[in-house]
Design brief:
The complex is a heterodimer of chains A (about 100) and B (about 325). Chain A has about 100 residues and is an all-alpha fold. Chain A is about 90% helix and about 0% strand.
Chain lengths: ~100, ~325
Amino acid sequence: MTWVSVATGLLLFAGVFFYAAGTVGLLRFPDPAARLHALTKADHLGLAFIALAAALEWGSVAIAAKIAAVWLLAIMAAGTSAQLMARVTRQDHSDEP
Amino acid sequence: MTAAFELILCLMILGTACVALLVRDFLAAIAFFVVFGNLMGLAWLALGAVNVALAEIAIGAGVTGVLLILTRGRLLALGEQIDGNPLGHWLNLGAAVVCSAFAVVLGAAVLSIAPDDGLAPVIDRLMPRIGVENPVTGVLLAFRAYDTLLESFVLLGALVAVWSLAPADAWPRAPAALRMTDPAALNVAESFGRLVLPIALVVAAYLVWVGSDRPGGAFQGGTVLAGGFLLAAMGGAMGLPRSDDPAFRWTLVAGPLVFLAIGLAGMALGRFLAYPEGMAKALIVTIEYFLAFSIGVTLALLVAGPPVRAETVP
């Protein structure tokens, strides 16, 4: 067992842990803003750990750069969609009497 | 480990398919359909069919999901009752019987193909002659180019069908603007759209280029392009063209036209869609770039919908 496989395993474990935390938050948090918070932040931290694990597993700088680009795009998309969804839910609430 | 993963994947695919069919809420059904499409993409990946996986996730889950959500929005705007189950029991049962029979026939047909049906060696022997290394691209643009040519026209036909739904006095205006109405939301969407559009252009060009040797291709690249166009339009960074804009119409037909022209030029060599020896790869890449651009614009316009009377109608 090399240190790379140990590190990959640990990173994958951390990634799955944050995904699980995000999912629990999505299911248990009381209001939409908190649920969005769980989905975007915890899940994308989890994605970061899994991306790191994948990059380490391949061991190539070019592939690591591609994975980093995918992760950056994913967090920017998540941030944007979370902003837009939060606005929609706030408008829905302010429409209520 | 792999067997366990594949078993769980199969169960999740069947489960999401059942939920998508049976859940009464239309929006939940669409959400499960999109999840189903992504899981199907994973299944194709597990089978080693990366091209199909890309197409399934981008078009099967992505574009189709967006179209379904927009359909729901337009039906709701018309005041239609869309949730619940409007069909009678007998109609449901009939549909279930017909679909099951179809699935059985399809399954039997797939299982009847022998793993060594002799096609793969034929393709492998012919691949070096077209200079392309991705066998899927070889099949799509050389050995079965006829199918792909027709597909590109089908997509154009779909857009014509959508346009034919435009009210008479709206023709030939632009489709309803996609830009967000809320100023703060527009601000967020605009910065993201401006950021994503150039990235989408580069990724689409890369996917088409890499498609000749590795997974990728015109449909995958075109879908990425369409996503970039739509995000830019939602952020107001891009307007939607009028339906009679000549430059825009040429863009729509450029892909199929270039494909057809090269195919007809092949007739000079004796056969429709035959490529001259040594020039096959250059011609295939040319066709794919034009196709990807036309597919991107067509898909984006399919999502945008038919022309509308005034600029402000949602």
